[in-house]
Specification:
Blueprint lengths: L2 H4 L11 E2 L4 E4 L2 E5 L5 E4 L20 E6 L12 E6 L10 E3 L18 E3 L15 E9 L4 E10 L6 E5 L3 E8 L2 E5 L2 E5 L3 E5 L5 E4 L4 E8 L24 E3 L10 E7 L2 E7 L6 E6 L4 E4 L20 E6 L6 E8 L2 E3 L16 E8 L14 E4 L9 H7 L7 E3 L4 E7 L4 E2 L1 H6 L21
Parallel strand pairs: 11-19
Antiparallel strand pairs: 1-2, 2-3, 3-18, 4-21, 5-6, 6-21, 7-20, 8-27, 9-10, 9-30, 10-17, 12-15, 12-17, 13-14, 13-16, 15-22, 19-20, 23-24, 24-29, 25-28, 26-27, 26-29
Bound molecules: 2-(3,6-dihydroxyphenyl)acetic acid and fe (ii) ion.
The site of fe (ii) ion has 5 residues, from loops.
Protein name: Homogentisate 1,2-dioxygenase
GO molecular function: homogentisate 1,2-dioxygenase activity; metal ion binding
GO biological process, one term: L-tyrosine catabolic process
Amino acid sequence: MAEAAKRPKVEASSAQRKQAGHGLVEEDGIKYFTGLNQEVSSEARAGALPQGQNAPQQCPLGLYAEQLSGTAFTQPRKENFRSWLYRIRPAAGHEPYKAVDIGNLAPSFADAVSDPNQLRWNPFPIPDAPTNFVQGLSTVAGAGDASMRSGTAFHIYACNTSMDHAALYNSDGDFLIVPQQGTLDIKTEFGKMKVAPNEICVIQRGIRFQVNVTGPSRGYICEVFSGHFELPSLGPIGANGLANPRDFMTPTAWFEDVDEPYTVYSKYHQRFFAATQDHSPFDVVAWHGNYAPFKYNLADFNVINSVSFDHIDPSIFTVLTCPTPVPGLALVDFVIFPPRWSVQEHTFRPPYYHRNCMSEFMGLIHGHYEAKAEGFQPGGATLHSMMTPHGPDRQCFEGASKAKLVPERVAEGTQAFMFETSLSVKTTAWAMTGSGARQDKYHKVWEGLPKLFKA
Ligand SMILES: O=C(O)Cc1cc(O)ccc1O
Ligand SMILES: [Fe+2]
């Protein structure tokens, strides 16, 4: 069999994805809708959704109707996101929220660290002591202010314990979660999602969710304080390519009717608050709308690149973008560096040396990043802030400037990614010292690049 034919197209759980009736697929025993931000309806009990109206005087099956708005009521129709939830009890029924001191969130970037240096971190440590997803959240970098709905934050989660009888919702923005180690079994108000390394998920503002793990688990989170992630426009690429809409998967309704104490955490102004209630918040029996979490397998990304010469800008690998009101300017682009063929002629093929008016935060899910010989490891990170010069290290430059330019598979068994923001980010004390993961000699990778100039 030819090499290419042997190479699996999809990794991990997507390999088992099956059609499961009209507009649905099934994976790991969970049914999902396919598509992105579509208007859908889902019932975990037949007859639970009212027909012809959202708020009947009495809802079917004795449920309460509740609207969850992801955009202002008045935003234009094609950007208007909201869902109607039909639940056993409304979300409003809980004891008062009290501030709790857990995790390492940065409540503000005003006093965070300004550092224009190239920054790199070893794999962030996963604690040995029992730590759940909420307790294991730490902010690395960011800019802006959640209360002004303006900005972004990059976090690491590192945990080993499930969120038993607990849920979290984020008032500050949307989470794009990138697992690096350990599969996440996520319960949400909209249903369940299983998200393995090399998959990502987006859980939008306000949605209650619970993260369950089976062992040491780590990953990256990009939080956006405004807007929502969407597919990039394809321009002259045409109607298909990059991340295709049908590969996005949204949970179908699932609920638990559990009258036991639950803690609900609220992330509000980048701080945690906790409230108790006497029942599970995962009591949504049916829902309809277009505001719902989703997941995506990065192995489904259709890679497009130069087949003639030169290194194409990494925007060609954009999976999702969170736009600003300025056309073409992202608050954050989520970009990957997937396995692919490299065929460019008379070209220095790795990333070029560059200085960017965007800030580039990179992580590695698995494998080895093409622009760095060593030192950038899975579970670690780099930050090249606005106008911070960077590019291939010396070893990579020397190899690639002399390499024989045959067609070559690059980044095989690898998945690096980038959160690229138009903001100028600051780092946190946790990132710079508390985590113990920062490499203080990173700048040395560019040391000794020889003078090749021939006058
Ligand atoms: O800096 C990086 O490694 C990311 C990156 C990759 C690339 O191919 C071109 C530009 C760029 O910023
Ligand atoms: Fe870069």
